[in-house]
Specification:
With 207 residues, this protein is α+β, with helices and mostly antiparallel strands. It folds into two domains: 91 residues, no CATH class; 82 residues, Actin, Chain A, domain 4. The protein has a three-stranded antiparallel beta sheet with strand order 3-4-5. Strands 1-2 form a two-stranded parallel sheet. Strand 3 and strand 4 form a beta hairpin. The longest helix has 20 residues. The chain starts with a strand and ends in a 24-residue tail after the last helix.
Length: 207
């Protein structure tokens, strides 16, 4: 008999969690437990540091877990507490559901490179842009995993009969990645800045 853990975004409300449970049961699953994705990531960190994770944290500290997925980002705040002499971890806060993930970032990088190609007189069709999207993801991963690299070449097949001669060549630089990903989505803020609540505009049902 299997014991399953189904991960869900930390920002899932009670309705979304219940729908997940119903979907799991409809798929024939019965012995399962829902686990929030940031907590699952934190448990994985504990497992990877099983011998010394307690030495890495202190009572009173707060641990922010950032779970950046393909299309969403979740934040969980975990407090390190002392329970009768034992080191315990308690989740104390969950961030709002943010519809921003790796796919959005890769797509934005692709649009930035497309604009650079357009300035050079090169226009991409739909299929070429999809290729560019995947090439940007690969280039981003290489650049961010190797600090010695400053740029990564990108090539896309042309539309003419001469495939090699018609290949479109460009590059994605580390500076472009930092500019798009760090400054292209949210404004800069300091560690002591307080989030500002935006006014909600829409139709509400009263009574």
């Amino acid at each position: 008999q299997q014991e399953l853990y189904l991960t869900v975004p930390a920002s899932f409300d009670a309705v979304a969690r219940e729908l997940t449970v119903q979907a799991a049961r409809a798929a024939g699953l019965h012995n399962f437990t829902l686990l929030e994705e940031p907590q699952a990531a934190f448990y994985a960190w504990i497992d990877a540091n099983a011998a010394g994770w307690r030495d890495a944290v202190n009572v009173g500290e707060s641990i922010l877990v950032c779970d950046v997925g393909g299309g969403t980002t979740d934040f969980s705040l975990i407090q390190v507490v002392d329970e009768q002499g034992n080191l315990e971890l308690q989740r104390v806060a969950v961030g709002d559901h943010i519809l921003l993930g790796g796919d959005n970032m890769d797509l934005t990088l692709a649009y930035a490179v497309q604009a650079k190609l357009a300035q050079q007189g090169t226009k991409l069709d739909t299929w070429q842009f999809r290729t560019l999207w995947h090439r940007c993801r690969k280039a981003k991963e290489r650049l961010l995993s190797d600090p010695t690299l400053d740029a990564e070449p990108i090539s896309i097949l042309g539309r003419g009969s001469s495939l090699i001669g018609g290949t479109i060549r460009t590059e994605l630089t580390r500076q472009e990645i930092e500019s798009v990903l760090l400054a292209g989505f949210f404004p800069d803020c300091g560690p002591d800045d307080v989030p500002q609540q935006q006014r909600r505009v829409g139709i509400r049902e009263m009574g």
